[in-house]
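Lab meeting prep.
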Amino acid sequence: MSLPLVSIITPSYNQAEFLETTIRSVLGQNYPHVEYIVVDGGSTDGSLGVIRRYEEALATWISEPDEGQTEAINKGFAMANGNILAWLNSDDTYQPTAVSEAVAFLEDHPRVGMVYGDTNFIDEKGRVLGKFNAQQTNYRRLRRGGVYIPQPASFWRADLWKAVGPLDPSFYFAMDYDLWVRFAKQTELRYVPRLWANFRVYRDAKSFAADDRCWPEMLRVHRREGGSWVSLFVAKYTLRKVLAPIWNWVKRRRLGIR
């Protein structure tokens, strides 16, 4: 086929409640050349039954103990053959045209290494709660903590991954932010205002359960990239740390999470 092969990785561990919806959102893309790989961490909750129902449509899948999400994603990309790469966590979903629109943009803009679109916040039932604040960003803004990149709606070239990957396994939460910074040092990242994905938020979601680990990891990246201890980024970090309980309460209320 003349169309680029897109490799999508889904890392999963005990997410049977949402995994099938995630898988179906990938298999339901209107783009015909997708290599889909599921990397399970040895789930015991029925996830394997879900995966086996769709295994004929998967390029491959594995289920074995691992060191967590970051290692699972790296395993998946080590098996990938695509020209364009992405990962979709096992509680998130794609919009039906996400892959085709991302591929079309990258094909039309050969100087752009990564493209990302808009993402909705959804609850456990799939109801839309709000919208991720996606914006155009670059290396300078990323260094200041201006991420603005919704991970589920991000697609990049395999050559870029080979140049700067894999994910750093020492990161538990901010491995995507670390990767975006490394990407942005090499190439242009471009925002497209099109809805491509849905990010699920709920009480046990990693984005809430381990939010306190995010900013310290982002601070590590800031310092690695030459950022000063006297900077806007550090000021944001300090303020966020002090106000974290109030901020998380407000965020939960806004998204309707108790």
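Slide two material, second protein:
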Amino acid sequence: MRFAELDMEKIISQFPLPGKLTGIRTLGNGNINDTFLIITTNEEAFERYVLQRINHEIFPHPESMMENFSRITSHLELKWKQGKYGYQVLRLMPSKEGDNFHRDEKGNFWRVCRFVPNGLSLDFPKNKNHAYEAAKAFGAFQANLIDLPGPPLTETISHFHNTRKRFESFLGLVKEDPRNRSRRVVDLIEFAQRRECLTEAISVNSFPLRIVHNDTKLNNVLIHEKTGKGICVLDLDTVMTGCVLHDFGDLARTASCSADEDEVDLKKVSFLPTIFEAIVRGYLESTECLLNAKERETLHLAPQVITFELGLRFLSDYLDGDQYFKTKHPNHNLDRARLQFELLRSMENYSDKIRNIVESALQFCHP
């Protein structure tokens, strides 16, 4: 969606930000929401904020999602003040009405957070330490939400990491073929069908239900530009009850891949065991007291399961006419699906190595 500058100024005016508005520009490359950097100036000082339009077609209950957001950040900020949580926390700016969001006349939902300075949002780790720090931050995020008071968080997207349900939806689209695209991707359809066993490898009902992030891409942790330390976990829209293994697997999927998600040259796509080893160390450092025996035993399968699931989602969206993810060209989702399946193939080739890395790291953890 494109927004005229006049509309943006009107939206921003609904949040009583100090100073005069002096800058607006797009920020990031998210697939779902629209994100902007806002700059205000007061005398010689300036402040930065992040404005986001919540995609209410993907998140059908924005009010409940923002209630989740508020509860999570309030809980973590309290722990930060008590010295129990070592990371910065996103801070919501209230609207003129005192709400944690603003709804415009077109039905769009908007929120504003303070900008976190000195942080890098990386699509790739520049070294093993970046992967380690991101994994440590996501693990600490999980561990510090285990005692969140109150009722369960609202489910913002139903069956988000239900791999079996994703697979069944995919099969339905193959059969229905609403856009007459199935014949173009027979190889990918067959590839997915041969790996149906992955749909049952991590069934949420077989593991403890915990509060998890559900979108642990590397770029959802800010890395300090000078120290290289993780400083803040971002993008809390999908935080809800789920399985911690999905978070671990998704970080491994994004950070342990040699290529960008939009790469079209599949020869550049491979799994990176050295980066994966750093992820395992960082994650277990924060969660060794959190994970039970079954979670530890299944940890090595998580990267394959989540890579398979995302490949299914991209391929399903392509078959359905690109309804979910933002696309830049007609075959964008198809290219994304091919990359995920190529990465999965590489993971399969390293399956023994992956298991050995996890088992070796677990030996140094307390039971």
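Talking points for slide two:
The first strand starts at residue 20 and ends at 26.
The longest helix spans residues 62-81.
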